[in-house]
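Pinned message: reference record for VPS8-like TPR-like repeats domain-containing protein
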Amino acid sequence: MLTSLGCMGVSICLEQSNKPAEVPLEDVWFRLLSSQISCVQMVSSCAVAATDQTASEELLDALQEETLSTLRTIVQDTFASLVSITSTRTVSFPRLFTRLVDAATNAAPRSHYDEFRAVLTGMLESYRSDGDMLAISKRLQDRDLYVTLLEQVRARARGWKASRGICAHCKKPLENLGQVGSVPEGGATLAQIVVSRTGIVHHASCAA
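Predicted structure (C-alpha cells):
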C-alpha cells in the first residue's frame, strides 16, 4: 500500500513535469518529498516510543523497521525519478535541498531531524553519484574522440595506398604507382592518378 501511494505521487509529479502547470515544478516535487520525509520522521518517532515501552516484542520491532525501510526507499525512488526527468533544468537542486532542510529543522524535534538527516544524506549521495556518472561518461567520450582524431591524423600523414595496380575504370595498368604525394622517377608527378581514401585508384582522365 505504501509503495503504491508513493508510485502514485511520483506519477502525478511526472505528469505535471511534462506539461505546463500553474504551480512551479520545483514546488510540486518539494511538496511530495517534504510530505514523504515527514512520514518517515513521524513513523521513526513512533517506533522509538513503542520500542521503549515494549522492547520484548520482536515482531512489532520488525514491522516498524520494515515500514521505515519502505518509506525511506520511497523517498529515494522519488528523488531518483526527479533526477531522471529532462525538465530538471527548471529545478534547482541546491535550493530544493535547502528548502527541505529548513522545513525539517523548523517543524521537527531533534530525534526527527536525525532521521531526516539520514534520508537527506542518501539523496545527496544519489545526486552526487549521478553527477559522477556524467563526469565519467564525458571523460570516456573525450577519450574516444581523441583516439579517433589521432587515428585520422596518422592516416593522413601516411597517405593512402592503392589496393590494386590497375585503373578501377579502364582496367589498364597504372604507371609509376606509389603513395600519394610521392614523386616517381623522371620527375613526373602523380597528378594524373587519383587515389581515394578507400584505396580505389584510377586515372584522372577516366573519371572525367
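Pinned by admin. Summary line: Residues 177-191 have pLDDT under 50 and may be disordered.
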